[in-house]
Every structure is written in C-alpha cells, then in structure tokens.
Specification:
- The complex is a heterodimer of chains A (416) and B (230).
- Chain A contains 17 helices and 10 strands.
- Chain A is an alpha+beta fold.
- Chain A has 2 domains: 193 residues, no CATH class; 184 residues, no CATH class.
- Chain B is of the alpha/beta class and 230 residues long.
- Chain B has one domain: 3-Layer(aba) Sandwich (Rossmann fold).
- Chain B contains 7 helices and 10 strands.
- In chain B, the strands form 2 sheets. In chain B, strands 6-7-8-3-9-10 form a 6-stranded mixed sheet. A 4-stranded antiparallel sheet of chain B has the order 2-1-4-5, covered by helices on one side.
- In chain B, helix 6 links the parallel strand 7 and strand 8.
- In chain B, helix 5 packs parallel to helix 6.
- The longest helix of chain B is centred in the C-terminal third of the chain and has 16 residues.
- The two termini of chain B are 18 Å apart.
- Classes of the chains: A alpha+beta (416), B alpha/beta (230).
- At the A-B interface, helix 1, helix 14, helix 15 and helix 17 of A face helix 2 and helix 3 of B.
Chain lengths: 416, 230
C-alpha cells in the first residue's frame, strides 16, 4: 500500500466534487459543533452547581444527633416479654459535642485538612416589627469561618471585622435581610427555641448564591449565641471541616466518625440531588451528541457510497493497472478521514463560537442562583474528545463503502 | 526467443444462467517479441481468454505461467503487484481516469510500482507520451481529450513500467478509421522495437498486420498461424 499515491487520488476525487465534499463535511461540522456547545454548557452547569454547593456547605460536618431511640428500662431487663410503657420521655440529651473545641483543634492538625470551624447552630425567629421569619443562626469564630467559606468575597455589605468588635453583631443572608427589610446598622430581634430573646444589630450581609443559605442563615459571635442558648463557653454543636481535596472528605469523614463516635455528613451525601442531576445531564449530553454524530456518519456513508458507485470504472482501471485492495480502501478511507477531520476542526471552531456566545448571554436566575450569564466551561479535553468522536464516526462510515470499492470485480466492469 | 507466456489446458465455465463451457482445453505459448492477435466471432471466448491471461479473472482450471512465474492459485495482492510490474492494458471502452491529466494517468502505475522517484516517473511518462505523439496534451485533463487521444494515452500508460506483455481488448474497436489506424501503427512500431503484444480483435486489418494470429471458435483454438507477409 502506498499512501502517497492513494492520498493524491483521494485529493483529486475530493477537489473535483467540491460541493459534495462540502455537504458531507457540514454534517460532521454540525454534529461536532453541537457536541462542543452542549458539553461545554452542561459541564458548566454541573461545575457551577457543584461549586455553589461545595462553597456553601462544609466538606464534612461533624454533629450530634439527638433523636436516638432508646429502649425502655423494662425492655432491657425483660426482653421479648409483653412489656408496655406509656409516654416514655426521650433522655434529656444535649446536642453538644463533648470537648468540641479540643476535637476541632485535633482535627485541624490532621494532614489534608484545610480548615476547621467549631460552631453553635440553632433555629431562630427573626423579628423586625410585624415581620416574623424563621431561620437559623450560627455562632462562629468569624476568622475560622472565613477561612472555610471565603466569607469576605461573599460579603455584599458591611464587614467581617465589625462582628468581632460588636458582640451583638449579626451578619445576615442577603435575601433574609431584604425580606426583613433591614440594612447594615438596623436592629433585629432574634428568638431562640429556648425562649430567650435578644436584639442584635446587622453589621453585614452575605450572599452565597444558594437560596437555602441566603434565605435563612445568619452568623453571630460564638459567645453571643452560646449565651442566647444559656450554655457554657465550651458548648459546640457542629464542627465544619474543609479538606484540600474534596474527594478525600468521604473516607476522612468515616475515619472521624469511627474516632469520635459522632455523626458525620460529607458533601456528596448532603448534595445527592445535585450529583444525581449531574449524572442525568451528562447522560443526556452524550446521548444527544452521539445521535448527532451518528446522523452525520450516515450522511458520509451515503455520499461515500455514491462516490464509489460513480467511480466504479476508475476503480476497475486502477485494479487492472496493479493497485491492490488495500490501495483502493486507502483511497476512499482517506477521503472519509479528510471529510471527518476538516469537518471536525470546523465544528470545533463553530462550537467554540457558540459556547462563547452562550457564555456572554445574560441570564437572570433570580435569588436562587447568583449568576448573570449562562455558565459555560471551556476545556481542551472536550475539544479533543469531539474531534476524536468525529474522526472515529467518519472512519466507520467511510470504511464500509471503501471495502465495497475494494471488492469491485474489474473483469465485470471492463468487459462493458 | 524465450517463452514469456504459456497457457496450458485452460478450461472455464460460466454458471449463470446455465452451466456453459466458454473455454475448452486452451494451450499455447507466446514468445518474447511476439505481436499476436486473437480473433474469432462474438462469444467465441476470446475476451474471456484475455481476461484469464490478464490475471484479473482467477476462476479457471489449467495453468498460466508468465515471465517465469506461475500465476495460477496466487493471492489477489500478488497478482495486482504482478500486473503492475509485468502487464500493460489497453481497453476498448474505459480508457483513463477523467479527473487526472494525461500525464498523471500515465504516471499512476509508475508511482504505484515505486521503482523510480516521482521525478523520474514523470520524465519517463513524458518520454512515453512523446513516443506516441501525445506530449503536447500532457497537462490536459483526460476528460477533455478525444477517444482516439485517450486511447493513445492509455497505450503510454500501459508502457510506463516497461511491461513484459501489453494486452489489448479490442484496442481499436471503439475508434473511427483514422484513429484506429493511428493506434494500430503505434502498436506496430512497438512490436518492431521488440515489445510483446497480445490483442483481442475482430478487425481483420488489425489481425492481418500482426505477426501471429490465433483464431478461436466455440471456446477452442481452431487455427494458429504466422503472418509471413509482414
């Protein structure tokens, strides 16, 4: 087989039928362009959702769950008998993590841990005049919390330092603040489940771009919230942990659970819905893209088949003058590869253009998501993948007509 | 003169629509430098015989040996290489690849052989075109040439690899008188220079101008005689 002559013949065939070549190429171009646009957009959405979920939630949350069922005393002593106990009260257990601050310090020293923030979280009522809203309040060491969630970049107004200087300060989610109609400097009445009420001053507002956080959450000082709950300064309900590698969070969480005996929740479990949505979107992207490419492949198959039928005399002459089956396959396969490769490259260009247009298109997601344009990812690997898909499809589509060409019996054609 | 082609006991059957014996025990030799015509009525099997000799049709009984190589039972790829190196073809209907220039058409089998560099193949192709008086048309696309011109270019193409034998299937059959005579005289000149040529023809003038005529009827050779007059 001599690729040099085969490519020369293939080139001549392609250039004499320019329009046909172009039509075949555009099929691939369209398929690849759609593939690039769709995958860039879908992955952008996935990344965005994952980022917002990861940014706003800890990689691991260590907490104490209080709803533990406990068997009655008689049941323990007399198991399997007919025991009836009415109105058994749950054991008076606090949701505190014992030695929470010490545990936090120890976790902080473990390798791979980016930051640890021990905190007190509780339900709360926010009152401002007639407005009553329920939400949560977290008592935190604001510097530690800032290290975990980059709060300074999330701040919409006010400052983090104001919380440190004002023990009755409060940094509130933007949407919650808007609903309560308060700004920096305004006062809000906060009521805890314990029944204590305290007037706190809003010193800042933050927005994560995630509705469930911005709608409900506020940060206060750790000591203030402890006081509101009438607890001692060692009272800690949650330990939030961020890892340098989010994927390490799952095994590390299990390790912590075994070591300290408290419940742990990792980001993957907490965001199961987002991760499931991601899988579905990925599937959808690949199904649609592959369908487009298969359609383009059939287009190429048809055109190559027609070319082979048109060129059947030429094939017979080539075979008579000593070209073997592999040369003939090479001639037609090269045409298909050229169509696939050029069409694919063109498709990458158009796909890039479309994704760029999409990435600058204004998109109002309301309060729920903090984005102004559609999220689009530009990653080289999708372009490599697109070209690879395109070329593979065209090679498959070109191979069968080429093999048919190689099987032409020259005698039948040349005898006329 | 050495024997360049020997066919022994060739039998060939067609099975469609009914079993039918086209060639019956054909045996003959061709010496180097022979200018031979195979003649006979339509359907006598002369074209079928030529395609057996051309190695393109491999469904037969008997044995064909050419240029000292036994060709019966060889693979298609081997036969393609053999055709490229040892055989030149001139067909009745299908002459050239229409998208290529006359020169490129002549060059293709030479490039395939790969014995010479591209530059040398081009020089040799020009030389062959000069030989048949088509050098002026070298750069023209084949589709723009007349039938007679195309057939002459086809002869140049058949010559490009200095083949052992040139085979022609009615090489003048589709041409008018003047062009037919022109093509014949080229064959004649080549034969004078020692080129072995086998041509199937039903043109009596063409046959009369050759060195040797094999006449076939009903799949058998009925006469084989030398043309002493030439």
């Amino acid at each position: 087989m001599d690729l040099h002559i085969a490519s020369q013949i293939a080139r001549t065939h392609l250039t004499t039928k320019k329009r046909q070549t172009l039509v075949a190429m555009l099929g691939v171009t369209f398929g690849i362009a759609m593939f690039i646009t769709m995958i860039s957009f879908m992955q952008g959405v996935n990344q965005f959702l994952e980022d917002s979920a990861l940014d706003a939630s800890p990689h691991i949350r260590l907490y104490n769950e209080v709803n533990t069922q406990r068997p009655s005393l008689i049941e323990q002593l007399n198991p399997g008998r007919f025991n009836v106990v009415y109105h058994q009260k749950p054991k008076d257990e606090q949701s505190r993590i014992k030695n929470g601050l010490t545990i936090a310090e120890r976790i902080e020293r473990e390798p791979g841990v980016l930051g640890v923030s021990p905190q007190v979280a509780t339900q709360a009522f926010y009152n401002n005049g007639p407005i009553q809203l329920s939400g949560t309040i977290s008592g935190v060491d604001i510097d530690r919390e800032n290290r975990l969630y980059k709060l300074n970049t999330r701040l919409k107004s006010g400052s983090l330092n104001a919380l440190k200087t004002n023990p009755d300060g409060l940094i509130m989610g933007t949407v919650l603040a808007r609903k309560l109609n308060v700004r920096v400097g305004d006062k809000v009445t906060v009521t805890t489940p314990k029944g204590t009420t305290r007037v706190l001053r809003v010193v800042g507002t933050f927005g994560f771009g995630v509705g469930t956080v911005d709608n409900t959450k506020s940060y206060g000082n750790l000591s203030t919230v402890q006081e509101m709950l009438q607890r001692d300064p060692s009272y800690i309900t949650d330990i939030h942990i961020k890892m340098t590698d989010p994927l390490q969070a799952i095994p590390f969480g299990q390790k912590l659970r075994a070591a300290y005996g408290y419940y742990t929740e990792d980001w993957a479990t907490a965001n199961t819905a987002i991760l499931a949505g991601e899988k579905i979107r990925n599937m959808l992207t690949y199904v649609v893209s592959i369908t487009l490419l298969v359609v383009a492949g059939f287009g190429i198959y048809n055109i190559m088949n027609m070319t082979v039928i048109n060129k059947i005399k030429d094939i017979a002459i080539l075979k008579a003058t000593g070209f073997d089956a592999r040369d003939i396959v090479a001639i037609f396969l090269l045409q298909a590869v050229f169509i696939g490769f050029t069409g694919g490259l063109l498709g990458l260009g158009i796909g890039f253009g479309l994704s760029y247009l999409l990435s600058i298109m204004p998109f109002d997601a309301g309060d729920f998501l903090s984005i102004k344009t559609f999220p689009v990812i530009f990653a080289a690997k999708y372009y490599v993948m697109g070209l690879l898909f395109g070329v593979t499809t065209t090679i498959l589509a070109g191979y069968f007509p080429a093999r048919k060409a190689a099987q032409v019996d020259p005698v039948a054609i040349l005898r006329g | 003169m050495p024997t360049v082609l020997s066919a022994s006991h060739l039998n060939k059957f067609f099975y469609d629509p009914a079993k039918f014996q086209v060639l019956k025990d054909i045996t003959f030799d061709v010496q180097a430098g022979d200018f031979m015509a195979i003649v006979g009525k339509s359907g006598c099997g002369k074209s079928t015989l030529l395609y057996l000799l051309s190695t393109m049709d491999t469904e037969y009984d008997g044995e064909i040996e050419m240029a000292g190589t036994k060709l019966t039972g060889r693979s298609q790829d081997f036969l393609a290489r053999f055709r490229n190196e040892h055989l030149g073809f001139v067909f009745q209907f299908h002459f050239l690849l229409p998208e290529f220039s006359a020169l490129q058409n002549v060059m293709l089998p030479g490039l395939k052989l790969g014995k010479y560099s591209d530059k040398e193949v081009e020089e040799r192709a020009m030389e062959k075109l000069r030989l048949i008086g088509m050098a002026d048309f070298a750069r023209k696309p084949a589709s723009k040439l007349s039938g007679g011109q195309q057939q002459r270019v086809a002869i140049a193409r058949a010559l490009i690899n200095d083949p052992t034998i040139i085979m022609g299937d009615e090489p003048t059959g589709n041409l008018d008188r003047a062009n037919g005579d022109n093509v014949f005289s080229i064959f004649h000149d080549l034969a004078r220079k020692g080129q072995t040529i086998i041509a199937v023809t039903h043109d009596p003038d063409f046959a009369a101008g050759t060195d040797r005529v094999i006449e076939m009827s009903d799949g058998m050779i009925i006469t084989s005689h030398e043309n002493k007059g030439q």
